[in-house]
Amino acid sequence: VQLVESGGGLVQAGGSLRLSCAASGIIFSLNTMSWYRQAPGKQRERVAAITSFGSTNYADSVKGRFTISRDNAKNTVYLEMNSLKPEDTAVYYCNAALRSDSPSFVSYWGQGTQVTVSS
After folding, report:
1. Which are the contacts of 102, defined by CB distance < 8 A and separation ≥ 6?
2. pLDDT of residue 101
3. Which helix (H) or strand (E) holds 115?
4. Cα–Cα distance, 85 to 97 (Å, whole number)
5. Whole-angstrom Cα distance, residue 8 to residue 4?
6. CA distances from 82 to 12, 50, 91, 99, 108 (A)
C-alpha cells in the first residue's frame, strides 16, 4: 500500500493550495483519512480528518479556511487550503486507516509534501 501526496508548493499569504493524496495497492476497506502537518521544531499535529461516511473534523487553527474531502471511488483525499498564513508553513502528511492484507485496520502515512507560505 502506498499513499502519494501532491499539490504542495510556495504561495503568498492569502493564497490557496489544494493537496491530494491517493492510496494505491491492495485495499479492502478505507476508513478515516486525515491530513497532518509538522513545522520545523514543532510536533506533528492533525489538521483535518474525514471518515468513510464523510464526517469531518478540523483543528481550530484552520477552521473556516481549510476543507477536507474525499473521493471513495478513487481512494483519494483532498485538502483545499484558502486564506493561507505564514504559520501554515509545514510539511503536510496524509494518513489513512485501511485494511489491506490483514484482518485489522492499519495506519499508513504518505511521504509528505512541503507547503510554504510567504508573507
Report:
1. none
2. 83
3. strand 113-118
4. 29
5. 12
6. 11, 18, 17, 32, 26
Q: Which residue has the cell 483525499?
A: 77
The conformation of residue 18, written as its DSSP 8-state character, comes to E
Grouping H, G, I as helix, E, B as strand and the rest as coil, residue 104 is coil
**Nearest CA-CA partner of 90 in 25, 9, 33, 21:** 9
Strands (E) in the chain, as ranges, are: 2-6, 9-12, 17-24, 29-38, 45-50, 56-58, 66-71, 76-81, 90-99, 106-109, 113-118
Residue 72: φ, ψ to 5°: -65, -30
> Along the chain (119 residues), what's the average pLDDT of each consecutive run of 10 residues?
95 98 92 96 97 96 98 96 98 95 90 97
Q: Are 49 and 32 in contact (CB under 8 A)?
A: yes
